[in-house]
Design goal:
The structure holds two protein chains of two kinds. Chain A is α/β, with parallel strands linked by helices. Chain A contains eight helices and 14 strands. In chain A, strand 13 and strand 14 form a beta hairpin. The longest helix of chain A has 17 residues. Chain B is α+β, with helices and mostly antiparallel strands. Helices cover 55% and strands 19% of the residues of chain B. Chain B contains eight helices and eleven strands. Classes of the chains: A alpha/beta, B alpha+beta. Chains A and B meet through helix 1, helix 7 and helix 8 of A and helix 4, helix 5, helix 6 and helix 7 of B.
Chain lengths: 225, 426
């Protein structure tokens, strides 16, 4: 899987690339409009992370170029501007998602994978890991072909962990993903512990071959047994 | 003190002075006039008496005033030479027709001398004068009446004229009182051709323009600064996230990094809140559509369920009607979630949060500290009560800003040991 990161802030570009490389993606980068324009014209990518404000032009122009070239790459706009206008325009021009800086690495990871999966699965909406299958459309969890009922939040938590398999997910990132941006002072997110505890219990009882393990005191990681 | 009253005070004091001075002047003038006319009369009498003595020598025996208004006394030639016609005020003891008893009265007396048949006589003629105390009294009366009537008319005219003259000023003042810099409304205008008021208007406009400019600049600065902070914050948090994933970290190192991350998170939230505030205040285009608040409230209560359980706070919901409003859905969500979060986090264990939705209002009530909050301050930015440490201090300011944007009113009150926040949508 090849991903193009179009971002003029070098440090941020490196951080994003480093994180995506852990997921075994092949990463290419472009630091300005011209480079990005050249690259999208020559190569094909599975996903493009696109900053809107670039030296030499706007990311939205690149979207138009992509459209003209007839390429249907997956594009996730990453912008410092939480502007409804840009968002609507971006999505209209064919972007798949819009992420406002700053974001959690786990969130970016989840978005990239969700976008890629949508393309890959081609209609199929189930993630399968070991003996666990999560049906995104029906919002159902099956372990060993047995249906395990989950509430909405448990489902979202598990989905987020599956998208970030083997990666450290902090309580903060998880809370923001599941409970929304508006959760912002929740006593260090201690309440998450109880949610994870319930989910773990369900996984264990159903003898799932995946496990959510605690990392240090503040994060979790989903691993295959 | 009102301008009207002030001008009346000045006028009344100066009028009092003018009228007293002119009365005094008038009094002396009048007295002088009276005397000169009395003196003329006395002179005529003198000539008549001297003429009458030619025929009636008995007149020469009137040596005192008992028989009339004159006296004639024989004098020596030498004495006669010393006498010139003199007029003098003198006091005599006499009884007027309006007096019951004789009393001393001021009279005018002419002293003269004449010669008849080689003999010399001194002639004194008196004429009663106007009584000065009566005159003073009359004048005082007159002046007081004049003063009173003048004042009455001045007050009436002043009232009418001043109110007419100052009407544009007061209209302008009222507009100024209601003027809010942040609303970007038209500058207050004065409707008059009075030069002073137009000058005032121009000066006020210059001042307002400057305030508006610096207000805009300040807003823009906050917006730009927050915006510029986004990328460095993104770099910081992402680098820390990568660092913490390294397996070589000792637990205490990881713990420290997490603490730093939490601090950066706080910065990020603060920055996001500031950006949102700026966005609301700049009235940047929002996606307004019909919002069903009952649904949003229920969804938010559902979102907060786990946190409420964790904090042992019970959230209850009562519906008194369907509430719909035209607004941006994410802002509607922000209002409700900020208020709910506020109610949850300033609560006590085993406390309650009650949400009541009626056709045109939402009331969120919560248990908490036993003291009412300062209703003046809670909506101001960065105001924090003693107990809260974690929040950005912007949550309620954002709610207020959104309410202001859409013309909803939000009020806080403390009743039955509960803190209530009520939004009126109509």
């Amino acid at each position: 899987m090849k991903i193009l990161v179009v971002e003029d802030e070098k440090e941020l570009m490196q951080a994003i690339s480093a994180s995506l490389e852990k997921e075994h993606f092949i990463i290419e980068t472009a630091g300005d409009f011209a480079t990005a324009s050249d690259k999208i014209a020559i190569y094909d990518y599975d996903c493009i992370l696109l900053d809107i404000m670039l030296p030499g032009g706007s990311g939205l122009q690149l979207l138009e170029e992509l459209k003209k070239l007839g390429k249907s790459e997956n594009v996730i706009i990453i912008s410092a501007k939480n502007s409804l206008d840009d968002k609507l325009k971006g999505l209209e021009l064919g972007a798949d998602d819009y992420l406002t800086k700053p974001f959690h690495i786990a969130e970016l990871n989840a978005r990239v994978k969700a976008v890629l999966r949508r393309k890959d699965l081609g209609g199929k909406t189930t993630i399968e890991i070991a003996n666990v299958a999560l049906d995104l459309k029906e919002r159902q969890l099956t372990i060993n072909k047995e249906n395990i009922p989950l509430n909405r939040k448990e489902f979202d938590i598990l989905n987020y962990f599956l998208l970030n398999k083997n990666r450290l997910v902090t309580k903060t990132a998880l809370a923001e993903h599941v409970w929304g941006d508006n959760i912002d002072q929740a006593d260090n997110f201690d309440f998450i512990y109880y949610q994870i505890k319930n989910l773990r219990k369900k996984l264990q009882t159903a003898q799932a071959d995946i496990e959510i393990e605690a990392v240090y005191g503040f994060g979790y990681k989903l691993i295959e047994k | 003190m009102k301008l009207l009253n002030k001008s009346i005070i000045y006028l009344s004091v100066s009028l009092l002075l003018i009228i007293s001075l002119s009365s005094i002047f008038f009094y002396f003038n009048l007295l002088k006039e009276i005397k000169s006319s009395v003196d003329e009369g006395l002179d005529n009498f003198k000539r008549q008496i001297i003429y009458k003595t030619e025929r009636d020598t008995t007149l020469l025996t009137h040596s005192n005033f008992n028989n009339g208004f004159f006296s004639i006394n024989e004098i020596t030639h030498l004495q006669a030479l010393q006498i010139h016609d003199t007029y003098a005020d003198t006091v005599m003891f006499m009884r007027d027709k309006d007096d019951d008893e004789a009393e001393s009265e001021t009279v005018r007396m002419l002293t003269s001398a004449f010669e008849k048949d080689g003999k010399y006589y001194k002639l004194s003629i008196i004429n009663s004068m106007v009584e000065e105390d009566d005159l003073v009294e009359q004048l005082l009366h007159g002046s007081l009446w004049l003063y009173g009537i003048l004042m009455l008319f001045i007050i009436l005219i002043n009232n009418f004229v001043l109110q007419r003259l100052w009407k544009p000023f007061y209209l302008f003042l009222n507009q100024l009182k209601q003027f809010r810099i942040e609303t970007k409304e038209k500058l207050p205008a004065v409707k008059t051709n009075t030069k002073e008021f137009i000058d005032l208007q121009n000066a006020v406009h210059i001042l307002l323009q400057r305030s508006i400019e610096s207000f805009e600049q300040q807003k823009q600065f906050i917006g730009n600064a927050s915006h510029e902070l986004q990328t460095p914050l993104a770099i910081t948090i992402n680098k820390l996230e990568l660092l913490i994933e390294k397996n070589s970290l000792k637990p205490e190192q990881a713990e420290s990094i997490y603490e730093i991350m939490n601090t950066v998170e706080r910065l990020i939230r603060l920055n996001k809140s500031l950006l949102l505030l700026t966005k609301i205040e700049n009235k940047q285009i929002f996606d307004n559509k019909q919002i069903n608040f009952n649904k949003i409230v229920l969804q938010n209560i559902n979102d907060f369920e786990e946190i409420a359980d964790f904090k042992a706070v019970k959230i209850s919901y009562t519906e008194g009607g369907n509430l719909a409003a035209e607004m941006d859905s994410s802002l509607a969500n922000t209002i409700i979630s900020n208020l709910l979060r506020n109610a949850l986090f300033h609560n006590i264990p085993n406390g309650t949060v009650t949400v009541f939705v009626s056709e045109n209002s939402i009331t969120i009530s919560n248990s908490g500290s036993e003291k009412a909050l300062d209703a003046q301050k809670i909506f101001t930015r960065f105001y924090k009560s003693e107990q809260s440490q974690n929040g950005t201090g912007l949550g309620l300011s954002i709610v207020k800003a959104i309410c202001d944007l859409y013309g909803f009113s939000i009020t806080y009150y403390f009743e039955n040991s509960l803190h209530h926040f009520k939004i009126n949508f109509k």
